[in-house]
Amino acid sequence: MPRPVKILAFGDNVVDCYRGENLMFPGGNCVNHAVFAHRAGAETAYVGAVCDDDAGRLIRDALIKEDVDVTSLRIEPGRTAYCVIETQDGDRVFVGANLSVSIIAPSQADLARLPHFDAVHTGRSSHVDAWLPRFAEATKVSYDLATVHDAERIARVAPHCFLIAFSAGGTSREEALALAQSARAAGARWSLVTRGIEGALLAGEAGVFEAPAQPVDAVDTLGAGDTHIANVLVGLLDNRHPETILREAADAAARTCLTRGAFGYAATMNVDLSQMMSLEEIYRTTRAANAPEEI
Prior knowledge:
The protein is α/β, with parallel strands linked by helices. The longest helix is centred in the last third of the chain and has 15 residues, at 242-256. The chain is globular and about 50 Å long. Helix 1 packs across helix 7 (224-237) and helix 7 (224-237) packs antiparallel against helix 8. The chain has helices spanning 29-39, 54-65, 108-113, 132-138, 151-157, 173-186, 224-237, 242-256, 279-285; strands at 6-10, 14-18, 23-27, 43-47, 49-51, 74-76, 82-88, 91-98, 119-123, 140-146, 163-167, 190-194, 200-204, 207-211, 267-268.
């Protein structure tokens, strides 16, 4: 029997704070990816930084319960990153956040682990674009650009990617297809575009494949996109047929929509929100992780 594929998720984490309910959940794109890829059958590890506070312990304990390897999880002084969320008609709306200690550069030990994995997953919220060439030298790269569709950013990231993913809810099929093909033309081997209730499309050398979303009475859509990306990456690494991959990813994303938080593990909110910033302010002021020449 073939061994499970191995994926390392590197970078961002938060506790998702539902302040109206006084609850927090473990989350962040890379944490979610590690969990959902493991649920899809992969062996996974998470590399990131949290603090020794209630939020950090919640993230760490949830990862351990989900059988994600946390050997390289760093414990830093300060406060664990958080994101404040409101839910409107079952859909999630981001109100503000503080990334705190979650933006880190890989250590030499982290880099040394990469060749032992079939892929590394990261994304725009991890702010490690300068490290993508090093990542790609060691293993396949999966990257979530989320709602960033900027041609210049795609041109910088895509050449290093085995899989690049975009969130494009509300776009037409023609716009989504153009986005996927632009990333392919820039160098990505596979390009995934999720379109919310309109489904998803996956472009690669073999062509363009599409699948509808699985209808569901959503409780909370948080984490559905991360679920989709994780399942697609596992399926591609397993060499499954793209149509099968997309169908299974849609089913998994629908199941995520039936869970509060990205993957559960609710706890009473214990987070200082006094330093919360708007998302616009975060992306305008956040300094990227140190580049290789700065280490």
